[in-house]
Structure formats: structure tokens, C-alpha cells
Amino acid sequence: MNDYIDPLFGAIADEEVIRNGIQAFWEFLHTLYGRLISEGEIFHKPKKEAHAFTDNTSLAASFPFVNNLLVIMTNMGLYGILNQERDLLLLDSKDSLVSGNKIAKAKISDSELRKCLCFLTNCGIAVNGREITANESPNLLTGLKAMVLAQEKLQTTATEYTLLRCDYRVLANKEPGIFDILCDIINPLPNEVRESVRSLHLDYVKHGYKCTFATTNFYIRFTYYCRSKELWRLNYSLNNGYNIGIKATNTNKYADTLATFPDTLQEKIQKGYGCGKKRGVTDSCDGGCRGIRIPLDNSFMDNAEFVKMWIDREVFMRKEKISIAQ
After folding, report:
1. How far is 241 from 286, CA to CA, in rounded Å?
2. pLDDT over 70 for what percent of the chain?
């Protein structure tokens, strides 16, 4: 945490106390996610998705137990009052833990509440009546309170799920740049793939082309334009993982270049893109309208240089088409 903290958080504590609290809350989340992964079969009971190719989903639909935790922890921060020693949060009523809030909504039954509170106790936050404690690391209550305030007041589409991600940059109350967001989003990718994606992004925007960012629930999209029209996307979704989608419309004009590409990439290009249902090649949505997709996994490095070449050729053809028209 190198950025300053917005004065908005002064009502909670001074900067040093908040920084220590954020660090403690970060460590708490590591424990929480570790247990979710190791005990996932117990808690992961998602609703049935409409079809496998949908990119957009929701926390409540795909991870209802995590959504319940979000509701409860958010309410702890919203309604819990820190005592003078900052080692206890006091609620007006235990019922306030299950009330819906604008950050996350859910109907939490008594049995689900008990399950969530038991889980949180095992991770380090205990609820006893109206009292919330964290005996092993009391500082995390301050961090929880600060992150909930950041989530309530400063969360944007670029910083969704501030609390669950412990996105401490939000406390500085300044919009992060697209490249910073991109680096965060692709961090789980293999090193070589990550560096290749960064390079592709920087090279493209360096030439003055526009990039926008949008997120809805668990669908994240970076859209890259050429002459105001979308050319390619970098996507991440819960169902379909990381991929690049290219909306190439001039492939017939540089077939000689494409002939040098790996066979697997040529096969994708030859199939083209567009709604499979409308084209009559599938019975339901296949995500084809989002472009020709190339997965961002270890296999991507076999295609990286060709993907860049492909995008460059498509840009050239689009620019040439405009020049001829003029």
C-alpha cells in the first residue's frame, strides 16, 4: 500500500492502523480461500447455468455460499461498531448479519447462517451474540471495516468485489489505469503468457488505438478498436476462462499470411466467427459473436507471434479499406 488513504477513512482510524488492519484482513482472506478450496465440495452448490458458452454469470448463481459470506461480512462492516480498543465489533442485533445490502443480496436461512458463521470462526472471525471478535488477529476487524467502507462508497465497475479481493488500492479513491487493471486480471496466467499479453496490449495502444474495460459479475472484457470498430477482445469469464477473441473480417485478403500459421490456428480462422445458431452450425449460443477465440493457456505461446501478426494484418486491411473509400 504505497498510495495515500483518502480522508474518508479517518473516521475509522489513522493511516497506520488501517494499513495494519488491511494486511491482517488480507491474511484472513488467504485462510478463507484456502479452506474454500480444500473444502469446496461441501460449499460449492451452484445453480444450473443456461448453457456452457455463457460468459456472464453471478456470484450468487455460481458460488452461493461465497455470496452468503459476502453478505455477512459486508453487514459486519456496515453495522458493527468498533470499540475503543479496536478488538471487537458490536452489532445492534444479530439479525442485521442476514439483511440484504446494496453490495450483495441473498436470503440467508438460519441453517445457512450457522454454516457461514461456523466457517468464519474456523477462518478467524467469531460471532458471539452481538459481538464479533478476531482473537488471533484483532487488527483484521479494522481492515474489514475499512474495506467494507471502500466497497460501499468507492467501488466501481473496475473494482467490483472490493471486499472479497481486498483491493486496497480503492482506499486511495482514484481510478486505476486500464493497464494496471489488466495486469491484475491476468496475474494467474503462466509467466510467458502474461508477458505476451502485456506486450500485445502495450504495442496496440502505443499506436493510438482505443481500449476500453468493462466487467459484469464474473465476465471481464478488454475491447480493442480499430477506426472506432471493435477488432479484438481479451476476455475472462468464470465459465470460459481466459481467451482472446478476434473479429477478423478481411481474412480472404491475406490468405498467404494465414497459410504460414499453425494448423490448429488455421482451422479456427477457417471456421470464421458469428452466432453459431444464426449461421445454422449449432442449436444454441456458442459464443461465436465474440470473435474467433484463442485460449490464453500454455498452448498460447505456440500461437503468440501469429496472433500479433494476424491482428497487424487485419489493422492494415481495415486502414487500407478506409483509404480506398476516401
Report:
1. 15
2. 83
